[in-house]
Design brief:
about 325 residues; alpha+beta; seven-stranded mixed beta sheet; four-stranded antiparallel beta sheet; 10 helices; 15 strands
């Protein structure tokens, strides 16, 4: 049976003292139940006093609807190959020439380097890959969820259309996506928008969006959650203000970049997704944030079987994550800059 999981992202935010958030301490550890783990996020001030906190709880479920985006993703990942994340497409929405400005030379180079690295490591390009779309709104924030969702749809609709005359940059990007068999994307912008609008209080949102340290840590939080999505987890969270439960289902954040359909009417079992090897490619601009001696990788390797390599010809880092390795591991991470 394939295993479909729900990331019970139980998010609890309580204020302890008054002060400006200057950093985040992250504690990543497994649950006392099999195949579960937890991410605790403590927002701290310059005196290392805890101002507020969040708790993210990850738990498996069983199946996905065959016609859902998660079901389609799971069906494409039924072989033994790793789930490979080849690119984070980053930018902000613009009413005019959005895609032209989003798909830059550097983004194309990052995608090309990622695929070339995989080719050198494996001897071939994967049969299926994913990428993430991390788009902000027009104010360079994650607050306008409708605009962000529209922008993500524009990217995917562009990739679904064939036979259209494209500019050189768009054509090159389109060809690389197809050559790399990149048939699914994850809405990272929408994920971050949900966290900002539904799960953060004002000081937390301010820190995560408007400070360099906060933005980097926000990316790491997103990576932890998206890794869960890729392995068949979903999320249930509690709103900060009302304590209302919010479900973050992977089906909401996965989106197919092709017109993929299935004739399978039976629910898709997701048990093997949990044991899927994950590989994420990080271009040179992410070297420090996801370094082998960095906080993110140390957290992963503490409770997961994880590997880190840098392929020097392309300066691309590759982080590989397997299954949980230790039900009693515990690590406190605290970024200082």
């Amino acid at each position: 049976m394939f295993f479909y999981a729900i990331i019970l992202l139980s998010l609890c935010c309580n204020s302890f003292c008054i002060g400006d958030i200057t950093d985040i301490a992250l504690e990543l550890h497994p649950s006392d139940k099999p195949n579960q783990y937890q991410l605790d996020v403590n927002f701290i001030d310059e005196k290392s006093s805890v101002i507020s906190r969040m708790n993210f709880k990850f738990t498996q479920l069983m199946t996905a609807d065959a016609q859902s985006t998660l079901g389609l993703y799971a069906q494409s990942e039924q072989d033994a190959q790793p789930v490979t994340d080849v690119l984070s497409l980053n930018g902000a929405y613009k009413k005019k020439q959005f895609l032209t400005k989003l798909i830059s030379k550097s983004q194309i180079q990052d995608l090309n380097n990622g695929l070339e690295t995989l080719k050198q490591l494996d001897g071939h390009i994967p049969l299926h890959s994913v990428f993430v779309i991390d788009v902000k709104d027009e104010q360079q924030k994650y607050e306008n969820s409708a605009t962000i969702h529209q922008a993500e749809n524009e990217v995917v609709e562009f990739l679904r259309v064939s036979g259209t005359k494209l500019s050189q940059h768009k054509q090159e990007f389109y060809d690389l996506i197809n050559r790399g068999h990149v048939n699914h994307a994850i809405r990272e912008g929408s994920l971050k928008s949900t966290l900002i609008n539904n799960l953060c209080d004002k000081p937390q949102a301010e820190f995560l969006q408007n400070t360099p340290n906060g933005r980097g840590l926000f990316c790491q939080m997103g990576e932890f959650i998206m890794n869960g999505f890729k392995q068949g987890y979903s999320v249930q969270a509690e709103k900060v203000a009302s304590h209302e439960l919010v479900t973050l289902h992977p089906d909401t954040f996965f989106i197919s970049t092709t017109n993929q359909k299935t004739v399978n009417a039976e629910p898709v079992a997701l048990d093997t997704l949990h044991d899927k090897q994950l590989r994420t490619m990080y271009p040179v601009g992410y070297t420090k944030l996801y370094a082998a001696d960095g906080k993110y990788f140390k957290a992963l390797s503490n409770i997961f079987d994880a590997q880190h390599i840098v392929y020097k010809p392309t300066t691309t880092s590759c982080i590989t994550v397997q299954s949980l390795k230790d039900q009693h591991a515990n690590l406190i991470i605290q970024d200082r800059q």
